[in-house]
């Protein structure tokens, strides 16, 4: 059973490093990996997140339909593969703001 969807840009080399890192650790295959650069990408199957919106930042949709994007999309994925502690720094407000700002600048 899939616990979440990750919408990612399969044509982005930096994105793919992160995605491949996580895919290797998704041993229970609970993340549905959706490449938005694939011509078959269907926004209706992905909570109406259109291509342009999806290209602006990483998106994760959990099984309850909650959407997290940008830097906030990473923690649920890392949690799912057992590495959530890596993103524990985002619990500290100033570090969360700084990391969000840095991600948005990229």
Structure characterization notes:
The protein is α+β, with helices and mostly antiparallel strands and 106 residues long. The chain contains 4 helices and 4 strands. Strands 2-1-3-4 form a 4-stranded mixed beta sheet, covered by helices on one side. 37% of the residues lie in helices and 16% in strands. The relative contact order is 0.17.
Summarize the structure.
This protein has 106 residues and is of the alpha+beta class.
Quote the distance from N terminus to C terminus: 33 Å
How much beta, percentage-wise? 15-25%
Major sheet description = 4 strands, mixed
Number of strands: 4
**Number of H- or I-type helical stretches:** 4
The outline comes out as globular
**Main sheet: strand order:** 2-1-3-4
> Helix/strand/pairing class, anyone?
alpha+beta
Low-confidence stretches: none
Q: Quick check: average pLDDT?
A: 89
Radius of gyration: 13 Å
- What helical percentage do the residues reach? 25-40%
One letter per element, helices H and strands E, the order comes to: EHEHEEHH
How is the secondary structure organized here?
Elements (H helix, E strand, L loop, with lengths): L3 E5 L4 H13 L5 E5 L15 H6 L2 E4 L4 E3 L4 H7 L12 H13 L1
Parallel strand pairs: 1-2
Antiparallel strand pairs: 1-3, 3-4
Keywords:
single chain; 106 residues; alpha+beta; 4-stranded mixed beta sheet; 4 helices; 16% strand; globular
């Amino acid at each position: 059973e899939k616990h979440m969807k990750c919408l990612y840009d399969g044509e982005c080399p930096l994105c793919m490093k992160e995605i491949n890192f996580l895919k290797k650790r998704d041993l229970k295959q609970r993340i549905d990996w959706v490449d938005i650069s694939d011509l078959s990408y269907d926004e209706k199957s992905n909570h109406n997140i259109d291509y342009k919106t999806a290209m602006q930042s990483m998106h994760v949709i959990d099984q309850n339909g909650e959407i997290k994007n940008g830097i906030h999309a990473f923690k649920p994925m890392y949690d799912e593969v057992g590495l959530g502690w890596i993103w524990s720094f985002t619990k500290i407000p100033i570090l969360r703001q700084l990391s969000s700002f840095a991600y948005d600048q990229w």
